[in-house]
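Q: I'm teaching a short session on how sequence maps to structure, and I want students to see two examples side by side rather than one. Could you give me a first protein with its sequence written out and its structure tokens following it? Keep the formatting plain so it prints cleanly on a handout.
A: Of course. Example one:
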Amino acid sequence: MPNRIIANRRLFNQGITGMKHETPEEAVRSLGAVQAQDYHQAVWGIGLRTQSAKVSDVEQALNDRKIVLTWPMRGTIFFVPSEDAKWMVKLTESRFQTHDKKKQAELELDEGTLHRCRTIIGNALSGCTTVSRPRLMELLEEAGISTKNGRGYYILGYLGRTGMICFGPHEGKHHSFVLLDEWVPNSRELTLEESLAELALRYFTGHGPATIQDFAWWVGLTLTEAKRGFEAVKSNLRLDFVNGTEYWSSVTAPAVSADTDSVVLLPGFDEYYLGYKDRSAIIETEHDAKIAPHRNGVFQPMMVAGGEVAGTWKREIKRSGIEITLCPFSPLGDQAEEFREAAKHYSDFMEMPIGRVES
């Protein structure tokens, strides 16, 4: 059964309930990093944790280089504080070497070809130039390097995971890319031990109560590596035993009531769900598969009531405004109106009128 005490403490520590952060970059920094496999969902994840934020505010923080979109952990995409992008990428880069060698062989990408890719893309982005994904694909094709069958996407991801490039501002409907060293010239440099400790403290502060296994999974580290970071900051953490399991959070985290009735519409891929290996505290086992029903790595936006995942939702943008469809796991009853208010909060963030909310 979901555990409401753990769930509601997580809601509070993640900035979903309680005091909101003043700026998008503060919201990102408080969590350590924000998962961003789906860009439009991720900006809402930042916005709902920020005071009176609009989508334009989050995108402006990206354009102003206060937050960066890159590949720091688990080989997937996150928003991170700009000054932390390099050391976060470096921390987990070596974890993908075996996988990369296998994938490169599968895609027939030898070291010579990858070196040419680095040169072509490096020259195109030099001088803090932003170039869209389609144009980078064209440049590779013009040089005789095929981008078909996933090769182009792999090349960009590989150069991102190894710290050469990161995402730049949006150009219309497309992502652009920049050189990380040029885009974030004044970044922090941390040793391996400092990196493990820093990330552990941020994780348990922004995600607690959580387990060491949760932390290891979130970062993509071995349990041994995760424990090294944990042990370095353990004196700053508080232990709670719940059903015989150790949960850790910041010693400065305030006690949170377990009887909150907060209602919120969370994005897909949100830290509240994907920030943990074990999600049993926030969702019934029988409903867990409904968050990623197609088993393709795509996680649905979630309805959350009192800390428990209570359904999924989807949006459709039309000329008249945003139409939202709620798909609760059980009848909403008295909470129907509260979810309508949550839908209005989302439409306000998107700076668009709400056309219809149905379930």
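Q: Perfect. Now a second example for contrast.
A: Example two:
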Amino acid sequence: MKYINADTIFPEELLREIQRHIPGGLIYIPRPKDAHKKWGENSGGRILVQERNNEIRQLFTAGRTIDQLAEQYCLSVDSIKKIVYGKKG
């Protein structure tokens, strides 16, 4: 994230109002709520985890045990249980 000097982008009246509340301080301006992305949307990590979880569910349905799946995917037994018994998402 790059810092921008407020006096180069804000109208003078707005800048004075901000300075009344934060004189000389740093302020973070968040993105609008509708511009937020969920974890893994940019990197593709979200899709990879969903695909892995679907594969785990299929293997469990086909007869693999929770312990076998935990070892195969390097996840805890509790994590595998959450995947196979939890809601699909």
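Q: What should students look for in example two?
A: Point them to this: The chain has a mean pLDDT of 89. Also worth mentioning: The two ends are 32 Å apart (CA to CA).
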